[in-house]
Design a protein that fits this description.
With 76 residues, the chain is α+β, with helices and mostly antiparallel strands. 29% of the residues lie in helices and 29% in strands.
């Protein structure tokens, strides 16, 4: 673990080396959605209308609102 969870930070992160990805390191982050979203500028995206490279797109205000709405719906 590269960053343990603390009540102040409200998130944690782990770095994992992926042999199937030519040894690249993937960082997994978990924590309070509002904290994580505040740290994000892009999102993974396979929609060619949203993403020029087919991999990422800007995480704008509308997308953030959609993510929060979906999280609240799942939480009940």
């Amino acid at each position: 673990m590269i960053s343990p969870h603390t009540p102040e930070r409200k998130r944690s992160a782990t770095a994992v080396e992926c042999p199937d990805r030519e040894g690249r390191v993937v960082i997994y982050v978990k924590g309070a959605p509002e904290i994580i979203l505040d740290q994000c500028r892009d999102m993974l995206c396979t929609d060619p209308q949203l993403s020029a490279d087919g991999r990422s797109a800007e995480l704008g205000a509308n997308e953030r609102a959609t993510v929060i709405e979906k999280i609240e719906k799942m939480a009940g």
